[in-house]
Amino acid sequence: MTSMSSSTRPLLNRRLAEFGTTIFAEMSALAVTTGAINLGQGFPDTDGPEEVREAAVRALRDGRGNQYPPGPGVPELRAAVAEHQFRRYGLPYDPDTEVLVTAGATEAIAASLLGLLEPGDEVVALEPYYDSYAACIAMAGGTRVPVTLRPHEGAFRLDLDELRDAVTDRTRLLLLNTPHNPTGTVLTREELAAIAELAVERDLLVVTDEVYEHLVFDGAEHIPLATFPGMRERTVSISSAGKTFSFTGWKVGWVTAAPALLTAVRSAKQYLTYVSSGPFQYAVAEALALPESYFTAYRADMEAKRDLLAAGLAEAGFGVHRPTGTYFVTTDIRPLGERDGIAFCRSLPERAGVVAVPNAVFYDHREAGAPFVRFAFCKRTPVLTDATERLRRAFAC
Question: The whole model's pTM is what?
């Protein structure tokens, strides 16, 4: 019997060597060990609509989805996704050839990048970006090219000239997230129109992460990039049920795209999970058909929680960037005399009994994100009230 030599190459694939345990796992574990309030990881602390949960129970009992569902997803959910896209955005998609159900948006992003990239292709992404973007680009052999969103008049803004300059002859794809996690920025119609013109001019593919599409505030509007001229045939649009219906553990996402694009994504997806979430797919189909009153009430509830947390953070002395989308508030810790968000977040549970996430982990240019820290407000109101009181006691003068 031979033993593995210590001089052999590292076990971990070099494409993933730069990625350790996700910051969400680290901070959530810290919340457990310290008993702190977890405003780091973006999951609700209550379940979504009872009728949607009961729909999943009914599907289980009726034997729908307990065995492998169809590879592209159950017909009921694909039809519901197509109807949702047309009803809300006027985007017609064929549920049989242009809709694919995935294990959450995370798998949808992975399958899109694995299916559409060749080694050496450049991917332009807005920085800061959700941590799986960088890992998925790496797994596909691509090269990420960050374009940094920078604070301006209380929000994080995109420099369109910087975006244009980032595109080279090696650029294959733009990876966009709007409403944007972690900054809470919602790209405007003018910004999206300029992005669309650039994509058409340079013949680029675009993958859009739109999971927070129903969480926009202060009169902001979510506009899918696929609605712009020349974009439907080159855009892979991604969303999911977790953020909209507060069932993040179900992991039900979807892709809408023209047939050729969808085929490329499905070719990679079938070798990842193959299928997933059978009974939950039927429940999400019913969720997408909920009346508009559900979406309005959900958005209003989150907006009130945003206001509560933002006000408490400001009173505690943080610089607050008020989000117009998502359920996260990005703060600046420099008014507190701090500059290192990673060190600050690691000490915060002991100092204040609250967990947050440092934005720097979402940047290639770590120095650009160093002073920013993200708090989630998708929690019960008493929890947010308790958290803000703890932060005020710890930091307010």
Answer: 0.95
